[in-house]
Design brief:
By secondary structure, this protein is α+β, with helices and mostly antiparallel strands. The chain contains 3 helices and 6 strands. A 6-stranded antiparallel beta sheet has the order 1-2-4-5-6-3. The two termini are about 20 Å apart.
C-alpha cells in the first residue's frame, strides 16, 4: 500500500487522539512521530503509556505490512524502558524488525526526542495472520 493508504488505516481512534503521524510503513522498518503536547503526565513529561502507544502502533503496522494484503496482525506483548524525559516538541519512533516468522514477528522500537536523545526503547511482539489463498 502507498503511505497515504497506511495513513488512512492508522488515522482512527487512538492514533488520532494521540496525534500520531505515520511517515513510512514497511515490514522491516516503520517510522512515525507523536507530539509531546497533549500526551503528558501531571508533571509535564511525556507519559510512559504514550510512548508505549506509539511503539505498539508502529510495530503493529509493520506486522500488518508483513501479513500482506488481506492479512491481519495484532500486538501480543510489549516491553518498554524509559530512558529520558521529553517535555516539548515531538517524539520520533522507528520500529525495526528483529525477526518476522510465519505467525509471530518481533520489532525493536526506538523513540527519540527532537534533539535525537533516546527517550524509550521498546520490544513489541505481534501475532501475524496471513491471508489464505
Amino acid at each position: 500500500m502507498e503511505l497515504s493508504e497506511w495513513r488512512s488505516v492508522a488515522d482512527t481512534g487512538l492514533h488520532t487522539r494521540m496525534g500520531i503521524e505515520m511517515l513510512e510503513v514497511g515490514p522491516e522498518l516503520t517510522r512515525g512521530r507523536m507530539p509531546v503536547e497533549g500526551n503528558t503526565q501531571p508533571y509535564g513529561l511525556l507519559h510512559g503509556g504514550a510512548s508505549c502507544v506509539l511503539a505498539e502502533s508502529l510495530a503493529s503496522l509493520a506486522a500488518v505490512a508483513a501479513a500482506g494484503q488481506g492479512g491481519a496482525a495484532f500486538g501480543i506483548e510489549i516491553n518498554a524502558t524509559h530512558h529520558e524525559a521529553a517535555r516539548t516538541g515531538w517524539v520520533h519512533g522507528e520500529a525495526r524488525a528483529l525477526r518476522i516468522g510465519g505467525t509471530l514477528g518481533t520489532w525493536e522500537v526506538i523513540i527519540t526526542d527532537d534533539g535525537g536523545r533516546r527517550t524509550c526503547t521498546a520490544r513489541v511482539t505481534c501475532a501475524i495472520r496471513r491471508a489464505k489463498g
